[in-house]
Amino acid sequence: MTSTPESSQPSAADGTAAKRERQYSLDEFDDPNVDPMSSYDGTTCVITDELEVDRRTLGTTLREQIKTMGGEQLMDPHAFVSTDEQRRQCAMLFGSCALLVVKGLGEFGADGFEAWEAAAALATAALAYWTSDLGTGIFHWSVDNYGSKDTPLLGKVIDAFQGHHKYPWTITKRQWANNIHTTCVAPLVFTTPTLLLNDRPTDLIFVGVFTALIVLSQQFHAWSHMKKSELPSAVLAAQDIGLLVGRRDHGQHHKAPFEGHYCIVSGYWNPILDDSGFFRKLEQMIFKATGVAPRCWSDDLNFIVQEDAPEGWGKGIITK
Ligand SMILES: [Zn+2]
Ligand SMILES: [Zn+2]
């Protein structure tokens, strides 16, 4: 089914109206004596007085930019099948993470494993799990809002995230390594030197577990887009108790006003970051310092979203 958010999701239409209202409420900040940050209410995008021209053209500029992005989303089912090269990249990354944890446990247990060392290892892994959700949120927010497909190193990832917003179903069709491999190579820059040069067991275990979860978040993300009937019962249970990001939680990211729910490991940090206006404040600071506006400030909420795969798509080619 191809539809606009308005026709398929009543709540999206409500969000559109809410966002419009907020755009209009910017007028009250026309007063040159109003300090944008002191007037900041956590939801409204306030732009400094000197940059008034930008404010008027912001919606148009961002709309044009978004239009050019994510359009090259591959629709050929063959591109969703895992290749040996993609499997190799996944094996290297997860191999390095496993070695980090093994080396960390080895350092702890070099003179026998004491109870406090086992507790420290477990606590480190728990800390890595807890903070990895925050890490995915900040990363996801940055690529959703800044840069373009021409950005060095991250251009492909940035364009792919825009494509994901236009065609959310594609993530559910990719085979495992095909979906995961995109973020497997860059973290090797951190995991490899840590493995070779660091001997502190807590550092080793933290980097191993944190990196593995950040990369696996693409799989947790894919699960959050699947129907209950398509999910293994263990995954469903993990989503329901909040160990993995839930379908409802991530669904909010794909609905108007398109400016929150960026965390995709457990989703634990989503209400904390969204309710505190953390990202809006960060966007204000970046805008004040550089003049670059985030894409979520655009008032365009009516872009076409293709919710489901076209009828018969991938038949005979995509086998999970
Ligand atoms: Zn996104
Ligand atoms: Zn998504």
Automatic annotation (TrEMBL):
One of its GO terms (cellular component) is membrane. Residues 129-297 form the Lipid desaturase domain. InterPro entries: Chloroplast_FAD_CarF, Lipid_desat. It is a multi-pass membrane protein. Residues 1-11 have a biased composition (Polar residues). Keywords: Membrane, Transmembrane, Transmembrane helix. Residues 1-37 are annotated as: Disordered. One of its GO terms (biological process) is fatty acid metabolic process. Pfam families: Lipid_desat. It is found in: Membrane. Belongs to the fatty acid desaturase CarF family. This is Kua-ubiquitin conjugating enzyme hybrid,localisation. The lineage of its organism: Eukaryota, Viridiplantae, Chlorophyta, Mamiellophyceae, Mamiellales.
